[in-house]
Specification:
This protein is an alpha+beta fold. It is built from 9 helices and 5 strands. A 5-stranded mixed sheet has the order 2-1-3-4-5, with helices on both faces. Strand 4 and strand 5 form a beta hairpin. Helix 2 packs across helix 3. It starts with 13 loop residues before the first helix and ends in a 10-residue tail after the last strand. The mean pLDDT is about 85.
């Protein structure tokens, strides 16, 4: 019996799984199947994706695959080969852009937004990041500390500032997303920010800002006058 994408349970199909659970839940084969769109004869796009990935030892090797090799594979024509290579190149450019932000002065809210919009702007759950900065407000590192509904009982200052000490950071910026697209802070967001500010005062690590990221816009606590210690 030939297993096609349409014969799979709805939430096991790559497109439906992405729409329901988010792109990060997809396997490598499912991501590639979406790029391929179709298979050939009795082979589904997911099976074709599995075949392609089985021919390399790692994703790193697959990221360097050449056009000539792709078009020789049955079921892969010029269009699919071009789609795969364009996607791989775009991913490399995004990673280069992310690497370049390390050591960059993050005094601008717009810079922070542009970077984290790529990371969490499309996520279906809230992701809470803390950006750790040196005395010149240059990024040392960031840490994804929590996933889920953000509130003070979950985001504890101990976890936030423990990393700051380990990284010898002088200041932090908090960043999280609102999957709904509504970027206005909730009471919990405000309470959490003020708790972190107060803890930062005691510990000598300044909380510079807290950004809420939407799909194409952001809310800055600093810009909107919501920081008690600014």
């Amino acid at each position: 019996m030939v297993v096609t994408i349409k014969s799979l349970p709805k939430l096991e199909r790559p497109y439906e799984k992405l729409e329901t659970y988010g792109v990060t839940t997809l396997s490598d084969e499912e991501l590639l199947a979406i790029l391929l769109r179709t298979g050939y004869q009795n082979i589904s796009s997911k099976e074709l994706a599995t075949q392609l990935l089985s021919e390399v030892s790692s994703l790193a090797e697959f990221s360097e695959i050449r056009y000539e090799k792709l078009v020789k594979k049955k079921g892969i024509g010029r269009s699919k080969a071009a789609t795969i290579l364009a996607s791989l190149e775009l991913a490399k450019r995004v990673e280069r852009a992310r690497a370049e932000i390390k050591g960059t002065n993050l005094g601008s809210c717009q810079k922070v937004f542009e970077y984290y919009r790529l990371k969490i702007g499309q996520e279906k759950q809230e992701h809470f990041y803390v950006v750790y900065l040196d005395n010149a407000k240059k990024m040392i590192a960031d840490r994804l500390l929590f996933i889920g509904t953000i509130n003070y009982s979950i985001v504890h200052p101990r976890e936030v500032f423990k990393e700051a000490y380990l990284l010898s950071a002088s200041a932090i910026i908090c960043v999280h997303n609102h999957p709904s697209g509504n970027i206005l802070p909730s009471k919990e967001d405000l309470d959490l920010t003020h708790q972190l500010e107060n803890a930062g005062i005691l510990l000598g690590i300044k909380v510079l800002d807290h950004l809420i990221i939407g799909k194409d816009k952001y809310y800055s606590f600093l810009e909107n006058g919501d920081m008690e210690r600014s």
